[in-house]
Amino acid sequence: SSIKELSFEQMEQRLKELVDRERKYLSKRNNEKLLKFKDDSSEKQRLTTASTNSPMNNPEVNPFDF
């Protein structure tokens, strides 16, 4: 197999395409990670809110306080 010679312009174009593909890939991956982080974060927030608002944590409305 012979090595194909590329002009500077062709190499530049291929590099631009490669960089563009990598940029899109990284952007997609980072967006997916960000969405997962936000989902996890809001789930923790819901659990924290639920436990904070639990009647057991509020002595004024504790149903077991006789």
Automatic annotation (TrEMBL):
Feature: compositional bias, Polar residues: 47-60
Protein name listed in UniProt: Uncharacterized protein
Biased composition (Basic and acidic residues): 36-46
Region of interest: Disordered: 36-66
Top-level taxonomy: Eukaryota, Metazoa, Spiralia, Gnathifera, Rotifera
Species whose genome carries this gene: Rotaria magnacalcarata
